[in-house]
Amino acid sequence: MALYWALTPAPTLFNHAGIPNAPVTEIDWSTRALAFSIAMVPLGTLIWGLLSGRRCFDAFAAGRIFSRDSIQQLKTFAIAVAASALLKPLAGAALSVVLSFHQPAGAKTLALSVGSDTLIALIFAGTVAVIAWVMTEALEIADENKQFV
Length: 149
Fold this sequence. Notes:
Helix content is 75%, strand content 0%. The chain is built from 5 helices and no strands. The longest helix is centred in the first third of the chain and has 33 residues, at 29-61. It is elongated, with a radius of gyration of 21 Å.
């Protein structure tokens, strides 16, 4: 991500941010650094979720499938994927504003884009959250059954 924001030519950055017909001007390093910071918010959230998913699957591999910790890590994974998907269009809008900030009056842009990738990520996160909820119910039933024996 850092290399993308450091090395990508300005016209390509404008195009990716949804700023059509942007003038061919160079973007200064402070603007690139701010744009990098904005772009890292949804990516950082996704990375946090993937690390939670890794801890969950490590617990599964160790045989702790119906443990509170593994289920909590699965819930965290689902929440992080959903949060990342919701933050992506907001970060894109913020990027369009930051990148067009130094443009002349009338050329400033606010571009909000919601794509199918965002919707698929939300559906995936919802599905994983339902699985985690079912696992929580199964754990509670198993704990209740242990008390009877």
